[in-house]
From TrEMBL:
It is found in: Cytoplasm, Cytosol. GO terms for molecular function: glutathione transferase activity. It is an enzyme of class 2 (transferase). It comes from the Eukaryota. The gene is HSP26A_15. It comes from Stylosanthes scabra. Pfam families: GST_N. Its EC number is 2.5.1.18. The keyword Cytoplasm applies. The keyword Cytoplasm applies. It catalyses: RX + glutathione = an S-substituted glutathione + a halide anion + H(+). Keywords: Cytoplasm, Transferase. This is Glutathione S-transferase. Belongs to the GST superfamily. Is involved in the conjugation of reduced glutathione to a wide number of exogenous and endogenous hydrophobic electrophiles.
Amino acid sequence: MAAEQEEGLKLLGARASPYSHRVQLALKLKEVQHEYLQENLEHKSQQLLKYNPIHKKVPVLVHKEKPIIESLVIVEYIDETWQSYNILPQEPYQRALARFWPSLLLKSA
């Protein structure tokens, strides 16, 4: 499967962030080319403050200059935008469970 080229797709993330890793994994599974921008969370960049001015956290996916925040929302967006195959279940109840369990597991870590 050829990697899909997406112009202007950026991911603002941090090495120590499991939430950033979740989004990176989804992009890798979908084979979507993107620019990864490493953030220093002690000295936040102007770009991070521009795209996530309320929470000032990573990850932030920027697609066509529109920011998407919160890792589970980003993964769902990736799954719906690049439809080479689905990484999330299509049945509504199973999809709800797929959203619920990762957030619960990361909160207890």
